[in-house]
Amino acid sequence: MKVLFATSEMAPWVKTGGLGDVSGALPAALRSIGHDVRVLVPAYPALLQAFPGATEIARPHWLGGLLPTPSLRQALTPDGTPLLLLDYGHYYDRPGNPYLGPEGRDWLDNHLRFGLLSRVAAWLGSEASTLNWMPDIIHCNDWQTGMAPAYLAYRAERPAKSLLTVHNLAFQGLFDHASLFELGLPDAAWSMHGVEYHGYLSFLKAGLQHATAISTVSPTYAREIQTDAEGMGLAGLLRHRASDLTGILNGIDTRDWDPLRDRHLPRHYGPRRIDDKAINKARLQEEVGLEVRADLPLLAVVSRLTEQKGLDLFLAIAQKTIDLPAQIVVLGSGAHALEHGWSAFAHRHPGRCAVRIGFDEGFAHRIEAGADIFVMPSRFEPCGLNQMYSLRYGTPPVVRATGGLADTVIDAADERHGNGFVFGPPTAEALLDALRRAVAAFRDPVLWRKLQKHGMARDSSWAESAGHYIALYKKLLD
Ligand code: ADP
Fold first, then answer.
1. How far is the centre of ligand 1, averaged over its atoms, from the C-alpha of 24 (Å)?
2. Which residue from 48, 176, 193, 324 puts its CA 20 to 30 A from 393's CA?
3. Is the distance from the beta carbon of residue 21 to the nearest atom of ligand 1 less than 6 Å?
4. CB burial class (10 A; 0-12, 13-18, 19+) of residue 388?
């Protein structure tokens, strides 16, 4: 099958979260099964630098509205995945985060930047394309490419089928009415059954409405988003499309995230050499200025600091946590109040709590390896990757029973399979209870080793999920 994977981020070059990780790993996994998957991604500075020899292969024009004529450049990743880099000078050639300007606010022309990305994805999946490669399926991801299925529906001759994967329903790509014209969409699209959403134009809704099929990144999240409580205003539409909606759990990049050969670690270790994890812990404590103590459980967070991730709940009981006693290390960035709250807490408790505001891939790896317990009290979590990294790194996670966390972490109460700690209500008290249970288990070396081994034995590779995507693609083409 020929698949165009359209995405707005791709690890290791451009990543703000799970979408970047998935885009960096899934296309290669699909290719290794024998399918012809190519990735369409904006030519951000990091990609232009990584692929200076990328040659122009097409200039899609007459795209409609105010959309400009971009250039498509071709490159090949080191693992052999063909890239189509969408280049239009100042649209994507901007430093830093792909969505936000220097002040932390959305770029004002995001509808055009990601409208162009969606439009070109649809162009590639239609007879208008001048390439001699025609995909059977356009695999779109989140709102940034959510408009592609709408373009296929309204503007394409003999369109390819489309799949929209929702990595996070909270980001919906909302813009005002004027953008309908700027994006070159017909007036008829402005309806409840089109791209309109409560007086706005929504990229995500457009995709949910028009994609041939919809998937999301865990079976539990696929069920949750059909409920009014967790459907973020789109539950009705998702229920309406329930027969076209599936949940496929993400895998992780098991080459990047392997404690036996992780290039970021001071000492490698694995299921048969878990003791060497202690060296990583001591080095991590040194690195961040915590007391170097093997006996204190070291709890860790690597996350966007937002309400979604429940890190306000953790902050509310941070004092009680370090009194257990325990240590805390946090790496993240996001909401100002959380950045400030956590930094202030660490300032008051040197030796017990260390906080780094920022995004640091290598440090994230050293935390996974050095910490004893990983904390993810998310209010909602479509899939979540860090709990899977934690399982693989022998760092049992404490998670709330939601979305992909519920699908990957098994509570220690299950003696035969338990690999972490799961709690229900999104409250600080329930989190503290779970942390207490985790710390008590940490003090029982036999039990702890068993939990670590169960986690490390879990297969989180992409192989199985890639197989599910192939089955889904086949269903679309039937
Ligand atoms: P989301 O996509 O909602 O942010 P995921 O758990 O799916 O959450 O993916 C987050 C990814 O981003 C993981 O690979 C995680 O390690 C990484 N990450 C998040 N924050 C940071 C940070 N501050 N520094 C380094 N990596 C981070």
1. 14
2. 324
3. yes
4. buried
Ligand 1: does its nearest atom lie under 6 Å from the Cβ of 18? yes
Could you tell me if 70 and 147 lie in one domain? yes
Cβ 111 vs Cβ 175: under 8 Å: yes
In whole angstroms, what is the distance from residue 298 CA to residue 282 CA? 10
| C-beta of 332 in contact with ligand 1 (< 6 A) | yes
| Short-list 170, 222, 186, 216, CA closest to 65 | 186
Task: Please work out whether the CB of residue 379 comes within 6 Å of at least one atom of ligand 1.
Answer: no
Helix residue spans in 289-413 (DSSP H): 311-316, 318-322, 336-348, 361-370, 386-392, 403-408
- Residue 159 sits in the same domain as residue 295: no
385 close to ligand 1 (CB < 6 Angstrom): yes
Summarize pLDDT for 45-84 with one digit per residue, the tens: 999 999 999 999 999 999 999 999 999 999 999 999 999 9
Within this chain, do residues 89 and 227 fall inside the same structural domain, yes or no? yes
Q: How many CB atoms lie within 10 A of CB 477?
A: 11
Q: How far is the CA of 305 from the centre of ligand 1 (A)?
A: 10
* Single pTM value for the model: 0.94
Asked, for residue 268, whether it belongs to a domain, the answer is no
Q: Is the CB of 256 under 6 A from ligand 1?
A: no
Indicate the number of domains in the chain.
Answer: 2
